[in-house]
Amino acid sequence: MALQVYWYDFVCFGIVAASLCGALWVIWRKEGSSSRLEDSNMYDSLLVARPNSEVVFVGALPRGHVSSSQLWTSCWKGVHPGWLLFTRILSFLVMAGSLAWDVVEWDATIFVYYTEWTFALVIVYFAIGTVVSAYGCWLLSNQYPSANREPTESLTSDLEERRETKVGTKSQGHYAQEDIQQTAGFWGYLMQTAFQTCAGAVILTDIVFWCVIVPFLSNSHLGLNVLMGCMHTLNAAFLLLDTALNSLSFPCFRLAYFVLWSCLYVIFQWIIHACGVSWWPYPFLELDTPWAPLWYFCLAVVHIPCYATYALIIKAKNTFLPRLFPHAFVRSY
């Protein structure tokens, strides 16, 4: 057994356990206790589909809500959802190719790194996004155009009206949202969760790599080369490109998913070391030093500014772009 446990390691275990339990509590509190929501909000959630007989939309939605059409429409008026589909396909293919290159170069053991976990999660997000966008484009082509307006213009106008009014009306755009809501509930929830988890994790991995590993901890596996540079650049670049185009919201409570993701990775490291692995991919995860509790505490705390950084990017997008482009940009909430 390669993992030796010292008294101070129990502090590390406690930090991870507290973070894990706190994240699960927030997730249950915000997204699992549907009985706490009013009926009008339940029907518009990502988890519960509205009955077919009900056609009136309520605009007063819970903070974490994302309507189905927001998964595949752009925040820019006049931009066809096909462009968002194109960027997601391109991002998926380039990132999947980069990951395959990494596996061929180093073999499957690269998945002991948090970077590879995060990179794979971003690929999963773009894979789901590609499928959802493709379905959205299919839905759009079957239910539009309107008699007097272009399809994309009609759709974005309907979305904007819904976000700015308390009660919606029966319109063609609302019926289109109604149809996709019945099939995209689970995938919409998964896509939104993956997006927000990726956002925090990408900031964390890139900051640690460029600011800590490259200057101070470079070795044969973690040194700066073309492949590693691509791995720690493409993830942020493609995610920011998608953010600039998509209509997804970014509620702060989903920081819990980011924390949960990191906790699962740390637990994975403990398990493989308990099974005989003696080498740690990151020195600050080692448990055989009295400084371990401080390192683990710092790692837990750093999740907040990493997630907040991306939240500020979304905030800036929804604050400044409507002022710069008042007739072209639709806010996401």
From TrEMBL:
Keyword terms, alphabetized: Membrane, Transmembrane, Transmembrane helix
Source organism superkingdom: Eukaryota
Keyword Cytoplasm: no
Transmembrane region(s): 6-28, 83-101, 117-140, 198-218, 224-245, 257-282, 294-313
Example of a GO cellular component annotation carried by this entry: membrane
Keyword Transport: no
Protein name: Protein rolling protein
Species of origin: Parasponia andersonii
Taxonomic lineage: Eukaryota, Viridiplantae, Streptophyta, Embryophyta, Tracheophyta
